[in-house]
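Incident log, structure service

09:12 report received: a user says their structure output differs between two submissions of the same chain.
09:20 pulled the input from the user's history:
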Amino acid sequence: MSPPEVYSLAQTSITSHAFNADRSEVAVSLNTKDVTIFAREGHEWKATETLSEHDKIITSIDWAPNSNRIVTSSQDRNAYVWQLSPDPQTGRMIWKPTLVLLRINRAATHVRWSPNEDKFAVASGARAIAICSFDPEGDWWVSRLLKKPIRSTVLSVDWHPNNVLLAAGSADMKARVLSAYIKDVDKKPSPTVWGEKLPFNTICGEYTSPTGGWVHAVGFSPSGDALAFASHDSCITVVYPGGPAAFTIKLTSLPLLTLTWTTENSLVAAGHDCQPIVFSGSEGGWELTGSLDDPHSNKSSGGSRPGAPAAGRLNSAAFNTFRNADSRGISSGPGSAAAPATESELFTVHQNTITSVRLYAGVPGNVTQVSTSGADGKLVVWDVNQVTPASATGLAGKMAGLRI
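09:34 re-ran on a clean worker, output below:
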């Protein structure tokens, strides 16, 4: 098995990342109010530009591959669309920002371009989602708000392939599918398993997390006929509205924060357990397949070593030391032996929470590689065909299916 490509971009957390079309550049947020653009130079990434316009921490970034535009959202309640334009003084190409009129009074939390790249959705803490489109007469981006029946902060959004339907995960413990149809922008959509008549703000589906956790991530399958969402109760749920059926896998690991589909029957999710986990299935049922991270491989960085135990934050040497001390009633006060420095390392490539997983190579429905970024400042590219089975990683998941 070939090892993943590991790049240490910073000593601080990467809250979001997005690649350009040919993967020669990547835009990242290093938990600051600026966007840093890195360009590939051989086997390394070098910082080339800094985009500065926001006043507070940037929460999400998305790079439109066909139009080469970047959209950013921030805790300052604003979003900007960045486009390469010639500098009138020097003539060189620079990234120029255009402010988006969001009309929200809380932080913007997540942003994604639609498949046609003619609009984008901005989730927010204002219990609303801003659907933004370009107004050629005013030469600016305007928004319409999806509000009902959202009751709390929206944490993630994802577009259906038809460019109209939008999935949203919220802190009100709900995953929803809503219509973001804009009359002057979209063509009349064809009927789908989610419905036929789709005026703006139509609720096409609403699903509750299994045991009441925030819904951190949502994602449509490549066909758009299924929806997956990950919640803070360490569950991942796949919904088939045409069935209708829903399948939930309850994990014994920490919660997942981000996910992406690789084929119509498989997806990759990651989060607090510091490793990308693979799930596969169909309308007949879903299962946890394994991990893209091999805890037994000899990694050049990180705490993994030959013969290492199962990967994951709950299997780090430091965690096991505290767990054993607790079960035996051993004090860690003055006079107790200090744990070696290496015991704080995890048996995974990522040494902290994975904050974002994105498609890297392939096409929707046939993805061959994904990229992850994390709170450890690393950017990692994984081959999705190299999966370490769940039995070898110590991962466990209990699947339950139900009709809806």
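09:41 both user submissions now match this output. Likely a transient worker issue. Closing.
09:42 reviewer note: The longest strand covers residues 354-363. Residues 300-309, 330-342 have pLDDT under 50 and may be disordered.
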